[in-house]
Design goal:
This protein has one domain (2-280): TIM Barrel, CATH 3.20.20.150. It has helices at 14-23, 40-45, 75-94, 127-148, 161-167, 177-184, 197-207, 211-218, 266-280; strands at residues 2-5, 28-32, 52-56, 99-103, 151-155, 191-196, 222-227, 256-259. The chain has 284 residues and is α/β, with parallel strands linked by helices. It is globular and about 50 Å long. The two termini are 17 Å apart.
């Protein structure tokens, strides 16, 4: 199933974006980001007939922004993140979604406004301890998700060259193949991978590894993809093309595919859906 993300349309409420998509005939929508709206779930429920909605990462957005990091050493931040994820799982069940996805943890605690941009230098936590914390917390949360009938998907992070140079090391989790395999091999049964292909392209260029090998070796854990393109330096959410690098390496048999594009032009979005559909039908 092909979804379209709300995450890259700025300065509009999620509800207005959803209505815009629905009026344009786009019925499979992944909610991501946006501004705080205490009634957003009830509003989505009122529109869910004949439509498919999914929640992603920092959604529903909290009243007071924070960085969602299930690997944090900060107990206050962990409590905020845990409560957010549990709420998102329960709200996913409320809107009839089988899946809820969120980003892998960080070895630092970046400010919310720095995510996806330059991150200022700070102490980098011990990766072994952070990984143990992340997996322990993921295991606990997965039990709640199982009771709610929701599967969890963890998304790979994106490491830019600038952030790598700032820290002189990798301050994020699940950007390299070795990191990712170490974590996914310990996933609970109802937890899988969501691979953001744009994140993978940037991280592979920064760390000098093969993105196709990453996809091949992680394939059995992958249940979904985020699709967009870029030049390999930043996650710019460009439109995909017939020449996008990933086509020979991704599967046609995953649970869902989300277009995460920096455009609000319905003609462009529908063209992107059509291209992806052709790929899934083995016609591209």
């Amino acid at each position: 199933m092909i979804f379209v993300s709300t995450g890259q349309i700025k300065n509009k409420t999620i509800f207005s974006i959803v209505k815009y998509y629905l009026q344009g005939g786009i019925k499979n929508i992944e909610m991501s980001g946006g501004k705080y709206d205490p009634d957003i779930i009830n509003r989505l429920i009122s529109l869910k007939k004949n439509n498919n909605f999914m929640l992603h990462n920092y959604f529903p957005p909290p009243k007071n922004p924070f960085t969602l990091n299930l690997a944090t050493f900060n107990k206050t931040l962990y409590k905020l993140g845990k409560n957010h994820v549990i709420n998102a799982i329960r709200q996913s069940a409320n809107i009839g979604s089988k899946y809820y996805s969120f980003h892998a943890g960080f070895l630092i605690d970046p400010l919310p406004e720095n995510l996806g941009k330059k991150i200022f230098k700070q102490k980098v936590n011990d990766e072994r301890i952070a990984t143990e914390l992340f997996l322990e917390r993921l295991s606990s949360i997965s039990k709640i998700a199982k009771k709610e009938g929701v599967e969890l998907l963890v998304e790979n992070n994106v490491l830019t060259k600038k952030n790598f140079q700032t820290f002189k090391k990798n301050p994020l989790m699940m950007t390299s193949l070795m990191q990712t395999l170490k974590i996914v091999r310990s996933f609970p049964k109802n937890v899988s991978l969501l691979i953001d292909l744009a994140h993978l392209k940037v991280s592979a260029k920064t760390l000098n590894f093969s993105p196709s090998e990453y996809l091949k070796k992680c394939d059995k854990w992958i249940k979904a993809y985020h699709l967009s393109d870029n030049k390999g330096y930043y996650d710019t959410n460009n439109l995909i093309t017939k020449k996008s690098w990933f086509w020979p390496y991704i599967s046609r048999r995953k649970k869902y595919y989300t277009l995460e594009l920096r455009t609000s032009n319905l003609k462009n979005i529908k063209s992107q859906i059509k291209m992806l559909q052709k790929f899934l039908e083995n016609k591209l």
